[in-house]
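Reading group handout, session on sequence-to-structure problems. Before we discuss, look at one worked example. The prompt was deliberately terse, the way you'd type it at a terminal:

> structure Class I SAM-dependent methyltransferase

The input record follows.
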Amino acid sequence: MNGEEIKKDGNFRLDLGCGNSKKEGTIGIDIEKADGVDYVLDIQNQPLPFPDQSVEYIYSSHFLEHIDNPGQVFQEVSRVAKNGAELEIWTPYAWTNDAFIFGHKFYFTEELYLHLCWKYPEIWEEIFQARWTLREIVYVVHPSTILELHENGISLDFAIKHYINIVAEIGIFIEISHYNRPPVTTPPKKSFAFTRYSERYPLKVNHKKEQQKSLLTKIRMAQALLKEMGLKNFVQFLRNKDSIFNNSK
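And the output record:
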């Protein structure tokens, strides 16, 4: 890919730390060469090869936990992000055994992003030279975990706060604003899903009995399908727009 040609286009979409699984429609960036990697560079120590405020979408999946200094990456993301750019981040949830495997150096919960975007936004606005607005937090929870909690009378919201091995991974959706920076007045939306591709449900809401019954039916169906199909085929099934578990996102 010709770097000079890319710099002439002002609507970039990036996948940071893409490895060989680059998100479709993005420019892949990684420290090592692999299929789908368009730029080989050390994001912690080298600037992104894009002009200021030229990127409309930044995606990162299971990359940030492998580096020593995510803050440096966040500053570069803020620099290249266009006004109103979307930042989508997926990492293992810190309070799960999978977070503590070899190669992981940083551990993420929602608290990090609440600190940046909700609790102390003015401080981080000075550092990032932009306002980061946390729009949504998505917790990926296995269907069998939700059923077990339900059978024991434990709410998912309570379990996430106080138990380990409830959430498999966490998704963060942030809007980056350089101009007309919105005041922080509304807390982020919190949702849960069976996988990052499936329908999202409000984390804490007083469902009517009919809604609770419908949700439990979907959870049981998802658990049965996962057991029958295996994880890889189940994820592919959820990506299908015709799936009953898929929403419009």
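Points for discussion. First: The longest strand covers residues 81-92. Second: Helices lie at 3-7, 70-80, 110-119, 121-128, 143-151, 156-162, 209-229, 231-239.
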